[in-house]
Design brief:
The complex is a heterodimer of chains A (497) and B (281). Chain A has 497 residues and is of the alpha/beta class. Chain A folds into three domains: 6-160, Orthogonal Bundle (Fumarate Reductase Iron-sulfur Protein, Chain B, domain 2), CATH 1.10.1060; 176-271 and 431-496, FAD/NAD(P)-binding domain, CATH 3.50.50.60; 274-429, FAD/NAD(P)-binding domain. Chain A has helices at residues 6-21, 29-34, 45-48, 61-69, 78-82, 89-97, 101-111, 115-121, 133-137, 147-160, 184-195, 212-215, 224-237, 253-258, 290-297, 325-336, 357-365, 434-438, 468-471, 476-496; strands at 176-180, 199-203, 240-242, 264-267, 273-274, 287-289, 317-321, 341-346, 369-372, 374-381, 387-400, 406-410, 416-419, 422-425, 429-430, 463-465. Helices cover 27% and strands 31% of the residues of chain B. The longest helix of chain B has 13 residues, at 111-123. The chains are: A alpha/beta (497), B alpha/beta (281).
Amino acid sequence: MTYIPAEKLAEDAIQTLEELNARTEPLKPKDRMAIPAQEMPSQDPAVRRSNMEEVALGYTPEQAKLEAERCLQCKTAPCIAGCPVAIDIPGFIQAIADGNNQKAADILKKDTLLPAVCGRVCPQETQCQAPCTVGKVLKSVDKAVNIGRLERYIADWEREQGLIETPAVKPETGKKVGIIGTGPAGLTVAADIRREGHSVVLFEAFHKPGGVMVYGIPEFRLPKAIVQKEIDALTEMGCELKPNFVIGRTRKIQALLDEDGFDALFIGTGAGLPRFMNIEGENLVGVYSANEYLTRSNLMRAYDKARADTPIFDSEKVAVLGGGNVAMDAARTAVRLGAKEVHLIYRRTEVEMPARVEEVGHAKEEGVIFHLLENPKRILADERGWVRGIECLRYELGEPDDSGRRRPVAIEGSEFEIDLDTVIVAIGNDSNPLIRQTTPGLETNRWGNIVADENGKSSIDRIYAGGDIVLGAATVILAMGEGRKAAAAMNEMLADS
Amino acid sequence: MSRILEKKQLSETVFLMRLEAPLIARERQAGQFIILQLCEDFGERIPLTVADADPEEGSITIIFQAVGKTTKQMAAMEVGEEIAALVGPLGSPTHIENFGTVVCVGGGIGVAPLHPIAQAMKAAGNKVIIIMGARNKDLMILEDEMRAIADELIICTDDGSQGRKCLVTEPLKELCEQDPKPDLAVAIGPPIMMKFCAETTRPYEVHTQVSLNTIMVDGTGMCGGCRVTVGDETKFVCVDGPEFDGHLVDFDNMITRLNSYKKQESEAHNCKIGLKAGEEA
């Protein structure tokens, strides 16, 4: 990927749009597919390597219009089936093409509460954009209509115009619902339940709400102000927020139901227990979980060295283990914190990487060194017990495994070393044990995830759950989708009781 | 937000604070800790043990040593001022039952978290022998409170300014040599003290519980910064502990990890101390 300056993209779009507007006859599918897919304007890699500001700058109006005109408005709308919350994608894109941004915003809001977030962090290329007809015909998912970028464009437009209205709340019902965790699942459920007139209390373990959107996803990918806006909307609706409140410790689930007058609870605590590789040297000084590294930098603002009290390593040479979005976030954070070399080590190939294609591209532009088909064997210590390097093995792809992906197989005798001072482990999360351990009768599976039915109902009456605590580590949009289903079921249950 | 109800200086660098915290006071049990923060935007989150709690009044008592940025700032705060964020109680409570004879060993400020445990052990019917150690007489804290609980109280100082002139491991060894030997030892203090307490009891096979205070960010299992090696396993102090079998803890690795940020901390010390409020380094 070569970097194209934002100004150039904007100029090209103006010109292309003029040519398009000069046409007299209506656009045929062939014409639409001839419109160039609009690249996301972004900060210059050389500049953004040393700032925390958002990398992707968002479409210009001309780019949005052009991208919307690329949509064929397929009757079958395969994109909708690819969206976990089934947004009316052709509908909102048509509204953009028609120049009616407000209508586009209204269509989005019917199905998603967090369009500004999802437009930025959804893995669109494996969801709505994967089955897009335009991409299929042009034989590349990269050429599909950029649905996510259009979603972001509309959400940002509405917010920047100051047009976001606080959703209406029905008359008070006197029923009270507790939401545990303020990540994407919790925020979604809070909004949907509050709308029906039930009172809502949100419990957050950290001192700030937002869950993974605040502690995990960095500012340069999802500005905190956007998340705060969503939370402000909830407090304006009358939801009460209790930060510094750890359910299971500060108060147990059963006490909330039996003594504190909650009629129902939703558990959306996420997948907060970092996994390690169980290799030699993982407890050396200089080895972080990605959760810790990102929390220090994001939530605790360690990147702001002059003002923050929370320290983070002044790393020179960093290795990040993993190939997901969290790995990309950690690698790109390390770049911004001043590391001279950042290595990303992944045991499969780029095709199997779970990270969003855009983030992989951005990481490469920023100079992250990719080691594919390699995997660490052990982390090496210096005489003080600090990280001095990592020993890796080279891999090759073998037969497909259960996930359908070809299993990476170690090549014997292929050991080699990389000199390092920091290792960040980003290979996923297990489920957090706090609620499970303190709530007798709450059924969990063998991975510790809460067992919930298709409506998010757990094994205990009046307790629902959704998001990563049920799914295992997944995505913002899936958490939101789960949350919406659970909220609908909870509203129904509350109406009947 | 949590208001400071009382502040007492126990020694040159050790302070006691009673904080308004009704929810934590109601739920907390011996062995648990809290995390606090002085500024929600830029403050660090630090774990501190709870020395006492009064559910009626809705208050908890913490005892801390002014050694880092936050604890030094706290030492300068007065009654009526507020701690920006306080969360807890965190960690698993101490397993309390009637073991028989329990030796509670506290070193320096470790006597603070030991106090509620000794209290609970006594209430469960144990014979409680307390060994308290400090560098010198001035650094000895909670002596009266511990005396009120103990069936037997042994005080030692490094310089002999109070009680016996020895390390806490010396009376601990003597107790282990007695017949019957203690049924359980609980040791809380500086990591090096806990390490040597565990080494002292090991040959006598006296089960030795230690309470670890490692670097933490969230305190709920999310970051893993607090991890320690216990036997063959990696454990998280915040959710699996803070108490572990002292005979299995890799103290050397833990001590190394505790020093992770020594460099940054001394820089913070160099550039911020001595400046007036609001002045930039």
